[in-house]
Amino acid sequence: MILGVSITDWVGYLASLALIISFMMKNVRTLRIINSIGAVLFVIYGIIMLQISYPIIITNGFILGANIYYLFLKKN
C-alpha cells in the first residue's frame, strides 16, 4: 500500500490518467500511443484485481489491438 491505496488501485488510477491525457492530444499518433499505454495498464488492472475482470480485459485488449493496427499496420 502506498498512501493507504493498494497497488491494484494505483494501476487503475494510472490507467485512467493515461486515457484522460490521451484524449487531450491533438496529434492522432500521440493520442494512440498514450491511449495504448492506458489500455495496457487497464488490462494489467483487470488481471490483478481480486476477482479477474474480463470485461475490462476484453474491452481494453480490443482498444490496444485497434491502436496497434492504426499505428503500425494500416498504411495511408
Summary?
The protein contains three helices and no strands.
Tags for this model:
3 helices; flat; mainly alpha
> What does the average pLDDT come to?
91
What is the approximate shape? flat
Total number of helical segments?
A: 3
The fraction of residues assigned to DSSP E strands is under 5%
SSE pattern: HHH
Briefly note the structural class of the backbone. Answer: mainly alpha
Poorly predicted regions are: none
Give the strand tally: 0
Radius of gyration: 13 Å
Q: What distance separates the N and C termini? A: 46 Å
What level of helicity do the residues show?
A: over 70%
For the largest beta-sheet, the strand count, sense and barrel status come to: none
Give an overview in words.
The chain has three helices and no strands. The chain has about 80 residues and is mainly α. Helix 1 runs antiparallel to helix 2 and helix 2 packs antiparallel against helix 3.
Provide the fold topology.
Blueprint: H1 7-22, H2 28-48, H3 54-73
